[in-house]
């Protein structure tokens, strides 16, 4: 994804990819950002319920740490930001961020914002940051955050939800494809990352 203004890896094409989780079941309590306040069970899992909710300013430090922990050149074209970086440079930015919380801890987030500051593109929102803590990955949290992102875009009247992902980010690409995003273009060798040329893949979800 394209880096968000003033931000690094979180808002860019993803991060590192630990193994899938497994085991018991996890209940997801979906909160205010997603339209239907419901509780559901998915597998595979982890021990704690996960709540999906809008971000608040106080989430900033945990979100910066999440960016820091999930960064790698495999998933991000932007250098690693420090763990104590400012996540929100303006309080108004919180409106674009939805977080996943488990046991009172932020374990994931997604950022949705207008794709362009143009009236003629007001119908297009973009996913400009997605991350799930390594210990919470492979349990459906990323998918739930993408569902929340879709809800946010629909509530804003969008017809399209776009994103950019590095070709090397196999896990994120699989997640997006499973969520219905389609590849609309590839910017060949768009980045030189860790000595290797990497494609930037443009994907979009039709909301009509
Ligand atoms: C990409 C990321 C957000 C996925 O979050 P997650 O919570 O692990 O994803 P989920 O558990 O919801 O998995 C949903 C789908 O992702 C894909 N997926 C998940 N783990 C995978 C793996 N190990 N290998 C391949 N695909 C995988 C599958 O399509 C999966 O669907 P399934 O469960 O029906 O098989 C997470 O790995 C992450 O934070 N990565 C680092 C940051 C990053 O890459 N962000 C994206 C930037 S573009």
Q: What does this protein structure show overall?
A:
With 208 residues, this protein is an alpha+beta fold. The chain has one domain: Gcn5-related N-acetyltransferase (GNAT) (Aminopeptidase, 3-Layer(aba) Sandwich), CATH 3.40.630.30. Helices cover 17% and strands 33% of the residues. It is built from 3 helices and 9 strands, in the order βββαβββαβαββ. Strands 2-1-3-4-5-6-7-9-8 form a 9-stranded mixed sheet, with helices on both faces. A hairpin with an 8-residue loop joins strand 1 and strand 2.
Key terms for this structure?
single chain; about 210 residues; alpha+beta; Aminopeptidase; 9-stranded mixed beta sheet; 9 strands; about 15% helix; globular; disordered N terminus; binds coenzyme A
CATH topology: Aminopeptidase
Bound molecules: coenzyme A
Strand order of the largest sheet: 2-1-3-4-5-6-7-9-8
Query: Which bin fits the share of residues in helices?
Result: 10-25%
CATH class: Alpha Beta
Biggest sheet: strands, sense, closure? 9 strands, mixed
pLDDT below 50 for ≥5 consecutive residues: which ranges? Answer: 1-44
Order of helices and strands: EEEHEEEHEHEE
Number of strands: 9
What would the average pLDDT be, to the nearest integer? 83
Helix segment tally: 3
3D shape: globular
Number of domains: 1
CATH architecture annotation: 3-Layer(aba) Sandwich
CATH level-four homologous superfamily name: Gcn5-related N-acetyltransferase (GNAT)
The radius of gyration over CA amounts to 16 Å
Structural class category: alpha+beta
**Roughly what fraction of the amino acids lie in strands?**
25-35%
């Amino acid at each position: 994804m394209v880096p968000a203004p003033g931000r690094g890896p979180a808002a860019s094409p993803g991060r590192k990819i630990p193994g899938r989780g497994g085991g018991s079941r996890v209940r997801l309590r979906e909160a205010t950002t997603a339209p239907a306040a419901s509780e559901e069970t998915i597998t595979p899992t982890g021990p704690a319920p996960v709540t999906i909710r809008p971000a608040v300013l106080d989430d900033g430090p945990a979100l910066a740490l999440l960016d820091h922990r999930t960064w790698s050149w495999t998933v991000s074209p932007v250098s690693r930001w420090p763990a104590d970086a400012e996540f929100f440079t303006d309080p108004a930015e919180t409106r674009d961020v939805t977080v996943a919380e488990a046991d009172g801890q932020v374990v994931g987030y997604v950022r949705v914002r207008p794709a362009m500051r143009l009236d003629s593109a007001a119908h297009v929102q973009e996913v400009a940051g997605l991350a799930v803590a390594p210990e919470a990955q492979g349990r459906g949290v990323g998918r739930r955050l993408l569902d929340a992102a879709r809800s946010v875009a629909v509530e804003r009247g969008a017809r399209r939800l776009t994103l950019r992902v590095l070709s090397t980010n196999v896990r994120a690409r699989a997640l997006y494809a499973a969520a219905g995003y389609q590849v609309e273009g590839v910017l060949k060798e768009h980045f030189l990352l860790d000595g290797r040329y990497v494609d930037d893949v443009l994907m979009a979800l039709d909301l009509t």
